[in-house]
Amino acid sequence: MTATLPAWTTLVDVPTLAAALGLDGLRVIDARATASTAVRVVDARFSLADPQSGAAAYAQGHLPGALHADLNADLADLGRHGHGRHPLPDEDAFTATLGRWGIGPDTQVVVYDAADGSMAAARLWWLLRLLGHTRVAVLDGGLAAWQAAGLPLSEALPQVAARPAYPGRFARDQIASVDEVAARLKHAPGWLLDARAGERFRGEVEPLDPVAGHVPGAVNRPFALNVHDGRLRPAPDLRAALQPLIGTHAPDQVVVMCGSGVTACHLLLAMEVAGLQGARVYADSWSGWVGDSARPVATGA
Questions:
Q1: pLDDT tens track for 10-21
Q2: How far is residue 1's CA from residue 166's CA, in Å, rounded to a whole number?
């Protein structure tokens, strides 16, 4: 019997994924199943402080069958200038990478990182959505939750049958540009949410970028507030916290940002889980904004 392809589009929990992978005895996907039944797991662990640590951690142990995605090499194009610290990857390079990973339009993708999904599981989730791929979810609690459940890790490198480049292009209307952000500076607060920590938003410290502060009119919502014990908070709690921040703005008029367009994706994921669908990411984010000294900067709360 051919297994039924799951349809996870935001989050998937550890027991559900373990069952789909046949690791808890509840359900085993037929090894003869076609590619349309595949669940492709991707390890996106990354550290800004030590960019090589993600690959090293993957080599030491990862979810069985998982491939590794590197934020700098696979989920960004560091050769593009003027677009912040983590510019969007080149479309052709990214779709070719997906093909090498065996990911096509019919593939259910599950991506995880060390814990909460912010570095950099949600980034890959968003990039796939930009291509129109809806069957992608972040593993809630990530590797930490997997290990807490007593489930196995593997050092083996998976053998994946490569596929053609993914047949899609980025939906540019889902990416907020610097020109749009600049044009909306005088709009009522709530249209721009900044996912950075409060002290960075207020301009008290800035460990990564040359200028401290925030885009004038932005509202701070540190992504860490959306998490409890490494997992995303329940949808009603997220909605109760996020809805007042956007006020009368419709969710699809909201833009989310962060330092370089990575943790903003985690805030976008929280909004989707909360039922506030349609927000967009300012991909250049703060590091791109301050690339031009003529752009205004605000500090304080």
A1: 999 999 999 999
A2: 28
Scan for tokens 């007593």, then name that residue.
Answer: 150
> For residue 180, what are the contacts with CB-CB under 8 A and spacing of at least 6?
255
Note whether 11-170 and 173-289 share their fold.
Answer: yes
Q: Are 268 and 244 in contact (CB under 8 A)?
A: no
For the beta sheet containing 219-220, the strands, ordered from the edge strand earlier in sequence to the opposite edge, are 175-176, 280-282, 255-257, 192-194, 219-220
Report yes or no on whether pTM surpasses 0.85: yes
Give the chain's end-to-end CA distance (angstroms, integer): 58
User: H-helix or E-strand containing 54?
Assistant: helix 53-60
Q: Which of 145, 256, 258, 273 is catalytic?
A: 258
**Percent of the chain beyond pLDDT 90?**
92
Instruction: Report the percent of the chain where pLDDT is more than 70.
Output: 93
Q: Which residue has the tokens 């003027």?
A: 82
**Catalytic residue list contains 265:** no
> What whole-number distance in Å separates Cα of residue 145 and Cα of residue 125?
19
CATH of region 173-289, choose from 3.20.20.140, 3.10.100.10, 3.40.250.10, 3.40.50.300: 3.40.250.10
The mean pLDDT value of the chain amounts to 93
Which is the CATH superfamily of the domain at 11-170?
Answer: Rhodanese-like domain (3.40.250.10)
